[in-house]
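ok so heres the complex, two chains, lmk if somethin looks off
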Amino acid sequence: MTGKLVRRVTLADEDDFDGWRDAARGLAAEAIPASDVVWQVGNGPGDLFAADAPPPPAPPAGGGFSVPRAFLDLARNVVLHSDPTRFSLLYTLLARLRTEPKLMEDHADPLLRRLDLLAKDVRRDIHKMRAFVRFRELDDGGTPRFVAWFEPDHHIVRANASFFIDRFASMRWSILTPDISIHWDGKTLEEGPGAAKSDAPGGDPIEDVWKTYYASIFNPARLKVGAMLKEMPRRYWKNMPETALVPAMIAGAQAREAGMITTARDAVGGNIELAWAALRDEAAGCTRCPLYKPATQTVFGEGPVDAQLMFVGEQPGDQEDLAGRPFVGPAGQVFDRAIAEAGIDRTAVYVTNAVKHFKFEQRGKRRIHSKPGAGEIEACRWWIDQERMLVKPAVTVALGATAARSLFGRVVTIGRERGRALELPDGGGEAWITVHPSFLLRLPDEAARAAEYARFVEDLRVAAARVGAD
Amino acid sequence: MAQLDVQQKLEILADAAKYDASCSSSGTAKRTSRDGKGIGSTDGGMGICHAYAPDGRCISLLKILLTNSCIFDCHFCINRKSSNVRRARFTAQEVVNLTLAFYRRNYIEGLFLSSGIIASSNYTMEQIVEVARSLREDHHFRGYIHLKTIPDADPELVHQAGLYADRVSINVELPTASGLKRLAPEKSEGRIETAMQEMKTAIVDTADAKKRYKSAPRFAPAGQSTQMIVGADAATDGDIVAKASTLYDRFNLRRVYYSAFSPIPDASTILPLKRPPLMREHRLYQSDWLMRFYDYTPADVVAATDQATGMLPLDIDPKLAWALKFRGSFPVDVNRAPREMLLRVPGLGVKAVGNILSARRWRRLSLADVGRLTQSIAKVRPFLIADDWRPLALSDRADLRPVVAPKKEQLELFA
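and the predicted structre for the whole thing:
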């Protein structure tokens, strides 16, 4: 060692803010650098080389120099931290404040940043103690006493006592921790030495009722384990009776949610007609995408709600928009003729569109059909999904690329997927894809049109034959 | 039917209450029981969550129904008349005892009491008020009380509820009138809003009186809140944000809670089976936050939605979505930009912005300085200019989104 004079400060307790403040004031008044000061608590082993160090100078009369209030607030919290360097870090900051009086306003300063984080740890620990202390009732000779065992991360118990007095002033209570115990008798607070978990009562009959509450208030349909762990880290669990239930609650959650959905799917009530009508009425006011503005009205699906076969087209055309019914325009007439030829009873099938409003461009007096975009298809999927859930058809036929995109949630190439059974992604049953009847109307060549029409009828026949096939 | 004991009733009536999102014990007046009479305290701040359930929700209050019997038949509600759920009913005394037993053991901050409607709206409201009266007057309970009031009840009863409670709430239930008509045919938007209006008037009047006369009674010092269900009707995120903002303005609400519709046992067929992603609820809360603390207008949030679908993106937060749509407003200079522009920078929170403003009065800030004031420098970097940093390549990239969007595994597991 050099001949440098090392000062040693002995604080009374781990949370001795007043002792730290008095010593720091005296040291700072004499401009003693932080590296020359050793801080220790109680009669700990301390620094061997500082064994003969002189005590710190007495604080100057009149309080010495002034520091911002923000510093004192910070120091009061940081002193409670378990980090052994906290006293020294705080003193370093105090010494710098003499030459940098505005330092407390610069939270990007690395030292202040570090102390801010220590203070944050302490505030959080104080908050978690208020939250997670669990009292157990003890019959203590007639009048009950409520006793808790808690293991804080930092030296916060004394600082936190007033919270429990404010709240439980008329109760007799004790909070036992490894380093210190506090006892309230209704009038005064007493301190005692640290305790062991076994010094606290092992149980309380009300804990069973509390666990019942904890298990029942949990919604298994929305499991978010990460969010729980962020706010209630595992290290606190051992002293919280309800956490014993958590693993089983998580394990059972998905099964419970699946059960709810299955029950709802199977137990189709007599009100399905009502549900469909209510849905149609709600759709009449749909503003989910901008197409509702120029269009005349929403064109909802139609047909029996227990239909086994559902046809999904692209969107209403000019005539459908005016009539408010799907498949009544020129393409609808082609469709009617084709399903009749395919041997399908038109009154037994449900017909609807992927997009429920007519999208068009105005050219003079004419409204020219315009293809719906991905966003419009997506916005309207809400309705078709609801329709499909209510009707639950055994077989769904997508007429054209827009319908296929809506049903499968992705771009589908008709040429590649046509003519074979496909599985709908959401467990919605079997689907087939074919062309939209308007495609047939647009073919200029008569022979090609006849061939494509025959192929369309054949597609419909094959799909319809799948109903009840397996 | 055999008599149910209190624990069995609790199982049924807590289960029935779990679809209410709010469990907050925040924002009320400061109280203690230092006078040695009674029990309880409130700190006037954010309240305390005494436990968390695996659904990630805070458990702050004993949240129960007085009864889950109901004469209404709202399709989204597990307690509707036509549901086959088991029914139970607490007496007022049982609720009082349970609240005090839990409170003494430091399990809860107080009580959140709601109820199915039995006999009549007035009768039900009387029972709810009786629980709060007994806690406050017989037991001098100073903890938090949140009462769900019933829109059709006598205004005098609703007024009494406000005198005992810290917070009162009425649920608007659904964001659209057409959704309410379909899913809760017996409720009316008009009646709900009239009740909220009356509540607002009472809160404002008594707060005024309190300013002038110290002896004036307190009335719901933590204000009123409401809840709407997300994903059960056709409302888009844009619709919901607009609705919430109207509610905040018209009724001075403290909070609008969102509850992602989730499947319930014994669901009505009118209800959709598929629930919306939980992430949707989260994005709505984030946009609520932007409007309450970051000076975003409802129009700003709507601008962050997809124009065709009206929905907020699920993979990135609404603040980032807004920034990516308005690339021209960035980068922002940390050493010169006004507060309102710093608040628009993705990754800078209100506190970080405050710290930047305070620090830059004394010196110029580098990127490392900003890094010490915020969680993630990677997120803010493309949008910021600092003393030693210009995001040249990053801010000109056409495809910034994949660079700044969170990686897939950071998304919620079950979203």
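quick notes: The longest strand of chain A covers residues 143-149. thats all i got rn
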